[in-house]
Each structure stands twice: as C-alpha cells, then as structure tokens.
Design brief:
Number of helices: 9
Number of strands: 5
Low-confidence stretches: none
Distance between the termini: 25 Å
EC number: 3.1.13.-
Helix content: 40-55%
Protein name: Ribonuclease T
Keywords: Exonuclease, Hydrolase, Magnesium, Metal-binding, Nuclease, tRNA processing
Shape: globular
Cofactor: Mg(2+)
Family: Belongs to the RNase T family.
Structural class: alpha/beta
C-alpha cells in the first residue's frame, strides 16, 4: 500500500475524522472557572500496512486566564508549581496555546484527507469540556475538533483489556508506564496515543476492521 493509499484509508477509517489525542492538566474540575495549566496533543497517522501510529506531539505550559481558579489539591495531584521559574519562562496564554496546537491539527486534517479532528482522551469528556470552554473564552471561530464527539480510551481500555486506569491499561497493552512521570500533559498524551493505537491495531489484526469493511460494502451495494 502506498502512502497516498494509507492517507485515504485514514480518512475512511473514522468516517473522515482524524483522531487527535489530547490531555489537559487543570486547576480543578470546573471548565468554566478553573484554569488550564498544561495542554498537549498528539496527531496520529497511518502506515502503508494500515496501522495507526503516533505522529507529532505538541505541548504547552499555560498561564491561567484572568480570574481563573486553581485549587491547591489540583496542584498537589499534578505536581505543577506555578511559581517554578522555568515554567514561568515558557508558559503561554490560553489563546496562544490553542492557536499553536490547532495549526498543526488543521494541517494534519488536510494532509490525511479528513474533514475534522475528533478528540481522543482518557476520560475524554473531561478534556473535551475544558477544551470547548477555552475555545469559547478565547473567541476562536475555527475549532478543528468536533464539538461533542470523542473517543474515550478509558471505556475502550475497559472493553479490550478490562482496565480503565491509564497506567494499568497501558501495562496490559505492553506499553511501559512511569508513574513518576504521570500527570504531565505531554507524558499522559503520548501514553494515551500509544494505547489508542494499540487497541485500534489489535482490532484490525483480529480481523474486525476487515469484517466491518466487507459488511459496509454489502450494505452500500
């Protein structure tokens, strides 16, 4: 299979959606009032054999928006230090972080012949809610992500491996997971991307995707 055919297959695989794995570390559980502290996204691609693979990682430390709430319990959980001088040097505004992530996502959508991105996340509703709230807050008109559809690796991990915790699902899939590095948006997103690809590829290797294609072909005929 050529690279062009692989790109075409990606567009067919998820109904013209391009899966993009997203993780956000936040200052709490309220997307309307709690700050986004870190955001990361991993775009995915497909090889000539039809295997789904992680492509590029984009990750940013984020400065809390004006008036945002940050719970100390959230900082204790993630280990993020807002007063860390290195963090302060590299942190960007919410609008800048979204702009820097959306740009390569749009490029990946176009290069794979897709129409829109679909968010992949571990407990995806949480990340999707914060992403949508930030998009609205920043007045972004062209959000490349579908506004409500998402793929949840916690649910898929429970189905495939009987595990819903990210670390446990990764280990069940044969993916190394360092608990000391967890709760970094970059690290969690990259492990989630590996997990999602492993589950999609396993389904393909077991013949499920080929069967689905044949059944769709019969229906369309």
């Amino acid at each position: 299979m050529s690279e062009a055919m692989a790109r075409e297959l990606m567009a067919q695989r998820f109904r013209s959606f391009l899966p993009v794995v997203v993780d956000l570390e936040t200052g709490g559980f309220n997307p309307e009032g709690d700050a986004i502290l870190e955001i990361a996204a991993v775009t995915l691609t497909m090889d000539p054999e039809g295997n789904l693979l992680p492509d590029a990682t984009h990750a940013y430390h984020v400065t809390p928006f004006e008036g945002a709430n940050v719970e100390q319990s959230a900082l204790d959980f993630t280990g993020i230090r807002l007063d860390d001088p290195l963090r302060q040097q590299v942190a960007v505004s919410e609008a800048e972080a979204l702009g820097e992530i959306f740009r390569p996502v749009r490029k990946a959508i176009k290069s794979h012949g897709c129409t829109r991105a679909v968010l992949v996340g571990h407990n995806a509703a949480f990340d999707h809610g914060f992403l949508n709230a930030a998009v609205a807050r920043c007045g972004i008109k062209r959000n490349p992500f579908h506004p409500f559809s998402s793929f949840d690796t916690a649910s898929l991990g429970g189905l495939v491996y009987g595990q819903t915790v990210l670390a446990r699902a990764c280990r069940a899939a044969g993916i190394e997971f360092d608990n000391s590095a967890a709760h970094s948006a970059r690290y969690d997103t990259e492990r989630t991307a590996e997990l999602f690809c492993a589950m999609v590829n396993r389904y393909k290797d077991l013949g499920g995707w080929a069967l689905a294609q044949r059944e769709q072909g019969v229906e369309e005929a």
